[in-house]
Amino acid sequence: MALFSLVFIVVLAITGSFWWTLSISSSSRGHIYHGYRRLQEKLVSDLLDIGEFSRGPLRLKESEFCPQELENFVPCYNVSENVELDVRTILDIGCGYGSFGAHLFDSQLLTMCIANYEPSGSQVQLTLERGLPAMIASFTSKQLPFPSLSFDMLHCARCGIDWDQKDGMLLIEADRLLKPGGYFVWTSPLTNARDKENQKRWKFIQDFTLTLCWELLSQQEETVVWKKTSKKGCYASRKSGSGPSLCGRGIDVETPHYRELQNCIGGMQSARWIPIEKRERWPSRANLNKNELAIYGLQPDELTEDSDSWKTAVQNYWSLLSPLIFSDHPKRPGDEDPSPPYNMLRNVLDMNAHFGGFNSALLQARKCEAFPTYPRTYDLVHAAGFLSLETEQHRCTMVDMFLEIDRILRPEGWIIIRDTVPLIESARALTAQLKWDARVVEIESDSDQRLLICQKPFFKRQAS
């Protein structure tokens, strides 16, 4: 049934695309015609991919798990909760629909998607529609608009870039973007080539990455993982005349906007040459220490003042915007201001971001959103450790959570909450406000957890 629906959507989309093409004026029809077949094939491919994504669990079953020894180095599909990753920022090249970044988002890994400009706008546009960071950019003749040593990891899964072209300058650009100790993850059929021409290309890439001081960590089928060196001495230990030279101070600059691709290794002159394994892990990394701030000529109190200023600014922005957003529901005298509509915003562009204080303030803002379902939907709500989780994240108050549970629970429905004793006692005190029948149950004598079992009563509003 799902396959039939998908085929129907594809046929409908192609038919609509055909009539749209016929409606184009004769002056542009010739240009459209030449690219029409390619766009039509791309449309079918896009819709089939979306259909695969919509199946969810079936797609994940086909994904191979990373081996246990690599869990400590690169984001894998089976990253365990106790693994401490050095990776925080990822550049996903030719990112499709941003599903790689979406998968990693819950692991607190921030992925920037970049892709070439396409007339159909399929990759970047759909990734942005999904609420994920994306921008149009390409490896052509210019350096990407990111400072040197910007990313902990670069990911290229069949991204369409021929890394062996331009005498290796594309790999040099990838090296410039990677922080010391960063990872380059590449998936391509070229790594398993059987014909001599492609084997020659693969051999060039292997040899060239050695001259960049990249260590080959693993190769599984079509996926290869390299690690950039953390030691500057590696470049001096290379054979004379082997590989690209180091960029001089006049070429190795922090702002590469509109600069041609360079045939030398960049980032070596930067004071930000700090191996990722020596950096604080997220979220501690958000608060740079005194030595790291000194690289940028800043003092800790300056960054603190900037952060506090933006927190206040965000609160003021909400105070100004909320009445406008809710203008169709005017506030009555004595009513409180509506809660900030955090859930109405996902994609935010901050121009001239300075130290990123506005972004940081938005991330720290409380985002307490309603559960996307109808009232009186469930007979039983079970929550184990949920109160502890929300207490750590500071998104919702306990009152907010209980009011939402009451909304989605049917009359005479049950609530079972398992958590620590202090939180259970606090929760029990709130049940009286909701007129829930509640009792606390001891699980085990030596356990620091309790059960709170509640029932929502059935009552009718009394006629006035």
TrEMBL record:
GO cellular component, one term: cytoplasm
Protein name, as recorded: Methyltransferase
Topology of this chain in the membrane: Single-pass membrane protein; Single-pass type II membrane protein
Domain of life: Eukaryota
Principal place of residence: membrane
Documented EC number(s): 2.1.1.-
Family the entry assigns: Belongs to the methyltransferase superfamily.
Organism: Vigna mungo
